[in-house]
Design a protein that fits this description.
- The complex is a heterodimer of chains A (305) and B (281).
- Chain A has 10 helices and 14 strands.
- Chain A is an alpha/beta fold and 305 residues long.
- In chain A, the strands form 3 sheets. Chain A has a 6-stranded mixed β-sheet with strand order 6-7-8-3-9-10, sandwiched between helices.
- Chain B has 281 residues and is mainly α.
Chain lengths: 305, 281
Amino acid sequence: MNGPALETERLRKRFGSKLAVADLSLTVGRGEVFGFLGPNGAGKTTSLKMLLGLIAPSAGRGRLLGRPIGDRAARAKVGFLPEHFRFQDWLSGRELLHFHGRMFGLGGAALERRASELLARVDLLDAAHRPIREYSKGMMQRAGLAQALLNHPEIVFLDEPTSGLDPLGRRLVRDIIRELRGQGVTVFLNSHLLGEVEATCDRVAFVKQGRVVHELRLGDAPAGLEVELRVAGLSEAGFAALAGHGSDLVREGEVARLRVESEDALPAIAATVVAAGGRLYRMTPRARSLEDLFLEVMGQDQRPG
Amino acid sequence: MIALRSLWTLTHLTLHEAARRRVLLAALIGGLAFLALYAIGLHFVVRESGKHIGTNLVERQITLNVLTLAGLYVVHFLTLMSAVLLPVDTLSGEITSGVIQTVASKPVRRSTIVLGKWLAYALVTSAYLLLMAAGVVLVSRGIGHFSPRGVDRGVPLMALSALVMMTLSIAGGTRLATVTNGILAFGLYGVAFIGGWVDQIGAMTHNQAAVNVGTIASLILPSEAMWQLASWHMQPPIMRDLQLTPFSPASVPSTAMVGWAAGYVAVVLLIGLRQFSRRPL
């Protein structure tokens, strides 16, 4: 259990003339819930497939649970939920888990018990005997999640786990991720649902064109605060003084927006406005969302994928 | 131990999958329909042949042998079709749908995945061949009171022929899309089929160049050569020597060709395993 759960050094993947992943260097600690964020086509899934040994990297190297990526022994301790989980649709939910369990080398009563436990956990116990072709998209995704947890993994890779899930399903996934964190399991979450990531991850990395462009620890008020003020009668000098309390001051008539480090700046801002003769009607601090930061980091040149 | 268990798990799953395929159902229905037709046809032939005064025992035996061989030829063809079509998308389909990702990310060797499927389809193809060949032999025996000779040598050769096609189909699926793979397998079969005829005509007309073309075709795909050898085993010397029927080959493939076919299966399978191990999934 020594060393990081995952580390990569300059991983690169080229498909013909297309560079899918340019240079991926990252480290994920044991027990960390790590969010891997980026727009569609940023190379997230390709990166993940390289880590799982589904695709051989063109260059660079990486270690997963202390072994070179693609190593079979390491894969015994890995769980993986692909983006669109599908399987032979004539199998029942329980048969599906039995099949995957046997691929992990499990069997007998232990597998039986684990399958029942997980079916209950993902709320599929009453549908366990039904063929999975009758499952809804969300049920299928939950079956896939159960499949990824069969072997009590040390690290779980989830590729867009909540896509196709309704709000209840999303909450279930979020709760399971929290439980995994409680058990010391490392979670590698590929997602572009930033709200989900914000709610579950300890740390995130933003990827753009197969490169990590920004890393952020989410515990410590990640992106600062934005304060919105409605103020009348403030002179230019007053606005200049206001701008001194933070950065990126934006004015739209009586409304001004300013980015500040933390809420400790708020009383001083109010004092400055009043001292400069402004009439303060409203002052609303708002934590900047991951989405704001995402858009900022990715830049304006990004187009919807 | 774990590798063996994974292999069996994959074989087991593939057997289940094959059993659910409509292709298998169609092959079985087609096969049974053929057996029924064969039985009816044979019944009338036997009844008619008894009426002709000139028909002696030898002629009757030859007629029944030719009919049985024709029946087995159809069985061979149906088995080859199933051998290609049943597994044609087992890998390429799962790669396209992404099903393979959850399996390949498990602690199993990629080669185990391919071998598990190969084993399952080898069992299915052989079972189909045995069932159909037994059907033809039993009909000949029951209606014509005729037991073809050499079936114990002929049917294994037919099975080897089917294994050649089945292995091509599985190995092709590690690299090619489903349709391309199917077209390639049948294209090669066409080459071998025409090659077989060129070989026979070449041997009859003593045209060495034609015989060489035929041999090369058989090396490219030894299926048709295996059938020729099988049919040679399943007829009496008098039929072989007189070359009275399309099933009496003018040029008999050598036993070395059997070694070639077995080696062909092994090498094509190894190429498939290698391709699949390197393939991005």
